[in-house]
Write a structure and sequence with these properties.
Length: 299
């Protein structure tokens, strides 16, 4: 059994718990999730089953969309309501226009400091483990990509935003920094991941409905993980070359980006390999091969 599952994670459980449920229902230990959701959060959590665990990085690199709710006038050590929440005195309630004017500042390639209670490594240890022991954690800043922020609703203290971002972005930290910029603080009270690439919440399988039969019915083909990549259909002869790790040569009329993976598909549209385009040599050099022989070797 192999493929991808689009699971709608409920609140109150960890991403690891979802993996354990899928592992038991699928009858295989080869299960991995693409993109952690905190217990507070709900929504799309993609599970890779069988040899498709090798595709986890491809899913993680796709754009993510969230619907997030924040409470203004508060701060917490976790940047959400699961931590020690402190209410702040607010001299002037921010106007909707003030927030709308502020949001563009958080769109683009921005510098962000992840929360102290996060899985970021600090000195070789997870930040949240140090924070839980009462240690002061200096989490280094990093650059992340935020493609869109839309103000969905606002009635103080409740602020609801739609956010589209890249991998590694902490939505809690965006809310925290908006609160700082407004001068009143903010904590995240609710988070729903509505989409990762082609995986959307409308078609996600509720965790409570996960059974061996529903896994078989809802497994998506591996090619779903490469919807965002350039593609090239290979011939049967090309597939033979790929099985042995050899390059596929391109016609003069073919051109591909040289700075990203190219998804090589078989004649039937199945994912065969990932390759890098070598323009000077007119060839696609395989980086990972997913043909049956390779998959059986990895199983």
């Amino acid at each position: 059994m192999f493929g991808l599952l689009n699971i709608n994670k409920p609140a109150g459980v960890t991403s690891r718990h979802v993996v354990d449920v899928v592992t038991k229902a699928a009858g295989t230990k080869q299960v991995g999730h693409a993109g952690t959701l905190d217990p507070l959060a709900t929504g799309v959590l993609v599970q890779c089953v069988g040899w498709t665990t090798r595709l986890v990085p491809l899913v993680q690199q796709q754009h993510k969309e969230y619907r997030a709710t924040f409470l203004l006038g508060c701060t917490s050590d976790t940047d959400d309501v699961t931590g020690k929440v402190v209410e702040n005195a607010v001299d002037a309630v921010p106007a909707r226009s003030d927030i709308a004017e502020l949001l563009p500042r958080f769109v683009g390639r921005i510098t962000q400091v992840p929360p102290s209670f996060s899985a970021v490594l600090v000195g070789g240890r997870r930040a949240y483990k140090l924070a839980r022991r009462g240690k002061k954690v200096a989490v280094p800043s990093r650059e992340v990509d935020v493609y869109r922020i839309e103000l969905l609703a606002y009635e103080f203290p409740r602020l609801e935003l739609a956010i589209e971002c890249g991998s590694g972005t902490y939505i809690r930290a965006i809310g925290r920094d908006i609160g700082i910029a407004l001068g009143c603080g903010a904590v995240m009270s609710d988070l729903v991941r509505t989409r990762i690439g082609e995986f959307c919440i409308e078609t996600a399988l509720p965790l409570a409905e996960l059974w061996p039969a529903t896994i078989a019915e809802n497994l998506l083909p591996p090619v779903t993980a490469v919807a965002h990549l350039p593609k090239r259909i290979c011939t049967s002869a090309d597939l033979i070359e790929l099985v042995f790790g050899r390059s596929v040569f391109c016609a003069e009329s073919e051109s591909f980006p040289s700075d990203t993976d190219i998804a090589l598909l078989g004649p039937n549209g199945d994912l065969a390999a990932l390759a890098l385009f070598k323009p000077d040599e007119r060839r696609l050099k395989p980086r990972q091969v997913f043909l049956p022989r390779e998959a059986n070797t990895q199983a």
